[in-house]
Amino acid sequence: MNKKITLIISIWLSITNFGFSQNTVKTIYTLQDCIDISIENNLDLKIKELRAASSEINFKENRNKILPSLNMNYNLGINNGRSIDPFTNSYINQELTFSNAGLNLDATIFNGFRIKNEIKQSRFNMQASEMEIVEAKQNLTLEVTLLYIQILNNRDVLELSKARLTTTKVQLKRLESQYNNGLGNPSTFTDIQGQYTRDQTEIITAENNLKSTVLNLVKLLSIDLDSENEFENIFEINNPEKYQNSANDIYNDALENLATFKSKQLRIDAAKTGIKIARSNYFPEVSLFGQLNTNYSSAAQIFTQTGTSTIETGDFVSIGGQEHNVLRNEGQFEGSKINYKDQFENNRNSVVGIAVRVPLFNGFRAKNKLRVEKIQLEEAQINLNQIKFIFKQSIQESYNNMEASFKRYQILKNQVTAYEESFRVNEVRFNSGVSNIVEYITSKNNMEASKLNLSQTKYEYLLRVKVLDYYRGI
Hints:
Elements lengths: L1 H21 L5 E2 L1 H11 L1 H21 L5 E11 L2 E3 L6 E3 L2 E15 L3 H67 L5 H36 L8 E2 L15 H11 L1 H21 L5 E13 L3 E19 L2 E16 L2 H7 L2 E9 L7 H67 L5 H35 L3
């Protein structure tokens, strides 16, 4: 029984796996999917994020400069030969072990507001780096959007080319039947054969253009896409409306919303603050310092009195004409080492003071630093003005192209209607034998070319609109 159940389960799993392998689910990518993937995988964006992280660390480092610095030092060593005993400050000529320790405190009270301006400058640079990340995301979003629209455009071109081939194929079969039965003009059949091969080559060209555009998007997303992947058509512009904003309105919106201008302005603010930092080199610097020190010497001893003894001094006194030796009492002492802990406690000393550094002459470094900062400010301002000029010209050009695309689209709609009616009439006449193959092919090509131009103009208009929306910060 168990063997039967196992066999049934195995067969079912095999059938299920076979079914799954035969019905691979296609992945449909939306525009938002592509934008999210590109932002996640783009290496240039990751580099900007790393730079922004460095700027944030630099800001925190400058902000912490307002805090005092506290450092500790400790030394331990052995000295041989003539040296100064750190305990008695007298010369000795013996081997000794020495040690010293210290605690140093430094706090800046005033330095021409350098620390304050360094904090401001690093904050501006940090904010500029963050804006550059936003700028990179905006640019990446625009690039992905334009490629996505191009894919949809090329896909529609491919569908139109296939539809053209289908129409030609219907006529080819009809004329082939006549040709095989010896009816009609043989050149009519060969002409439609030529048209059929032409339509086939246009399909190959359209397929290659679509694959090339997909490949460009794949490179931008840094992922692998295969033929099973599709892209959702989220742009319904069968009857596009005229763009409402003027070129001047778009430019003003760009100045207010685009991260490009914000990052450049923050760089200018940072450069202005850099001038203030350079000027601080002309001001005196006042700081508070404090020290706590102690030391140890293996030669240090403490002497304890153990008693007294009477000794002759070598001097004499005369009493009654008789000389007597002069005696004195002298204390007897026994030396003992002072331990490490006691010396560190007993030798402790402290220092507190205020230091003032007044710049008198520094080889014109302060002057040259100030000149360099002014040049950097001027460069940042020129960079911003240049960007504004480039964007203004680009916006005007994109706006003109958008208007031209909209006008062409309105005209091409009427053209398609006219050529469709012309082809309908010529197809009826050709099938009835009233008109010739040249008139039929000319009418057919005119209609299909007009449809293709209309489709391309529709997507061209959409591209122009998306570029203008990008400039507006949308």
